[in-house]
Amino acid sequence: YEKKKGHDSRSTDNTNIEIQARPKKRKRELERHSSKSKRMEVIDIVDLSSSEDEEKCADAVSGTRLPNNAEKVENDTQTPIAAPCTAGNLYELDATRIAFGEKVFSSCCKLSVFLGESNSHLTIEYNTLDSASGTPATKNNSLSDRRPLKSRHTVYINDSITHMVYYSVKDDESDSESETIPLMRMDKPEETSNRSSDGIRESTTKAKKSEYPIQNDQMSFLAMRVTPNDENKLVMFSDTYDHSVVEGDDANKYIVIEVRSNEEFQDVLDKMRSNASIVKYLHKSLEYSETYEYLKALKKDTLKEEQKRLSSLDSSQRKTRSSTRKKSVDASQNRVLLVYPFTSDMNSLEDAALGLMEASGAHPHSHIEVDDQQSVSDSIKKTGSNELAASTVDISKKIRGRNHYLTIRKEDLDRLEPEEFLNDTIIDFWMRWIWRKEIHDSESVVHFFISHFFTALREDGPKAVSSWTAKKNINVFKKRLVFLPINESLHWSLCVIVNPGSINCNGNDLSCILFLDSLKAHRKGRISKYVRDWLNYEWKRLVKCDPLEAPFNNCTMPVYDPKIPYQDNSWDCGVFVCRYAYGLYLRRHRHFTRDDLDDKFIRAISQSPEFQFDMHDIERLRIEIKTLLEKLSANYEVMKKKEKQERKLRGTKETKVCKRI
Fold first, then answer.
1. What does residue 282 show for φ and ψ, rounded to 5 degrees?
2. Residue 410: enclosing H or E segment and its boundaries?
3. Which residues pair with 611 in a beta bridge?
4. I need a surface site. Which of 29, 258, 364, 513 has the fewest CB within 10 A?
5. What angle do CA 620, 626, 631 make, to 5 degrees?
6. Which of 584, 578, 531 is nearest to 562 (CA)?
7. Are 184 and 299 in contact (CB under 8 A)?
8. Between residues 634 and 13, which one has the greater pLDDT?
9. Rounded Cα gap, residues 532 and 529, in angstroms
């Protein structure tokens, strides 16, 4: 504003607008504007990604926190007020679960650690479902109908943390062959591992002792006691978390964050130990034998989920037994929907996948990055739904005597309902389906084993499964990817052998084992031990080498677990295995090289278009597999009716011939 002869003038687009102002009113306006300017303080929000910005931020603010109401925006101004920041570094860790005393969360958990000269703090994040929205987590509601809410608790180091310990699993500890007391089952009766018809192991009696147990009983975690206050909002957990408890066997004494990546956790711990404001609260690293006290809430949560799975299995088995004894209405659960693969032409099979994404072999993203070695589009061309659109060849000529037939019943289809656990029939069907176009191609660079393969390998040794490859003349050392679905301890994971035949080559191809686990519930080191034993046995059988030679070991065939999407519930592990297998199958024409180790498979897997999916995609895939099976079942019924009519016609002709004779 400019004062000119008692008038205020304002220039807008080179046009002067004269405004007549009364002296007293103008004075009050200036006083109100002056007081508002003194009351408000504008602070720049600075990105801490560069050192230059850190210096600006350090010079701009003093490091003191604003009052609780400082984050509110005045109604009569459009300028937001930001909380001041201090120079420092922010580190983020994906978490599997977070326990506030006895209350456990497992959806979209994350721990952020901000380390600075002052105001160092931890931010704990997780998702909950909005109960006020009227859509609780039930089987009748899809994920899209629920409204997840992001909850966040910021804990300042100097104000509220009174105790902090940690335990980090090293690779050599996790992969060692020595027996350890399983923490998650320390006070649980000895159980048996009996394979149910669902392909999920249920525990009922004494388990057969195995040489290398694969259940992951060790976990990396950060545990602490925090004084609840209005700022960290931990008062809301007063019923499940009591920071004042010092002695006793209660599970409500600690806040425990179970992290996913041991390596990333180690890096963050190193940064925390070098920070003066937090190192005095970071008391010590725990020994394995000391961790049980801190993991009681997580242990209870694990057992609760296991009981939920067992109840689901028991319910299914009770229905099956009831239908067998009484042959009542429950007999519909035993109804055969289809036997796959079945006699059909390629057009009918591909029509069943029309309108579906993964089932049709479509790429999950329309914009595909070009690989260093070979364009990923080659994969799409070979898996696309149009490849065999014009083909009418009867596949029965190819499958007779070669395939393991899968009988899919109504009870198997019910496993695809929301919040149900997938069984081995569904997993094996999906693996065979995505591989259907080259399953009998001897030049195929991949091979899929059914889920029972690893179970037999673990229980009976490599010799017991040698016939799986010998009778079918399968040479796994000519494959680029070998898929092994793993089903143990009521959980599914996926093991993929990469370039096993390149172990003794001097080229750039990488020989390794990729381990994909959506919950990190299995020990990758123990599983890889079984796989290497089998590879050594196959090597001796096919290469006819020295019986004492064992070329596959930790050094020549290491195991890696790249960063991938994880589940945020307890029942979708099977669907994640299906999606992992599909993503890697699309990448089968990519050469995995030693260069991929430099960025920890970030470009090859983690950030590849094939692995950009979330829980909504998992829910969609569950529905998609069910839709595919229903369509195939309809085709199967048509085929059976056609065969029945043909048999009837042949019988009529034979009867007429007999009468003539």
1. -85, 85
2. helix 410-413
3. none
4. 29
5. 120
6. 584
7. yes
8. 634
9. 5
- pLDDT the model gives residue 442: 77
Provide the token pair at 373. Answer: 């070695």
Structure token digits, residue 497: 């052998």
How does DSSP assign 163-204, residue by residue? EEEEE---HHHHS--S----GGGTTSPP--EEE-TTSSEEE-
Residue 169 to residue 655: CA distance in whole angstroms: 75
SS3 69: helix
Task: Check residue 183 and give its pLDDT.
Answer: 41
What DSSP designation does 345 have?
B
Kindly give the residue spans of alpha helices, DSSP state H, lying in 461-593.
466-470, 524-543, 573-586
CA distances from 551 to 240, 247, 535, 653 (A): 52, 52, 9, 63
Question: Residue 430 burial by CB count (10 A; 0-12/13-18/19+): exposed, middle or buried?
Answer: buried
Burial class, 531, CB count within 10 angstroms (exposed 0-12 / middle 13-18 / buried 19+): buried
Q: What percentage of residues in the chain have a pLDDT greater than 70?
A: 65
Q: Are 508 and 594 in contact (CB under 8 A)?
A: yes
Residue 659 has what pLDDT?
Answer: 65
Q: In this structure, which long-range contacts are made by residues 456-460, counting pairs with CB atoms below 8 Å and at least 24 apart in sequence?
A: 457/530, 457/531, 457/534, 458/210, 458/212, 458/214, 458/488, 458/530, 459/208, 459/210
Least confident residue range of 71-80, 174-183, 267-276: 71-80
Contact status, residue 606 vs residue 563, Cβ threshold 8 Å: yes
**Digit-coded pLDDT (tens) for 440-496:** 777 899 999 999 999 999 999 999 999 999 988 899 999 999 999 999 888 999 999
C-alpha to C-alpha distance for 110 and 122, rounded to whole angstroms: 10
Query: What secondary structure does DSSP assign to 201-241, as a single string?
Result: EEE-SPPPP-SS--B-----EEEEEE---TTTTGGGGTTT-
The contacts of residue 366 (CB under 8 Å, 6+ apart) are none
**Predicted local confidence at residue 265, as pLDDT:** 92
Distance between CA atoms of residues 143 and 421, nearest Å: 16
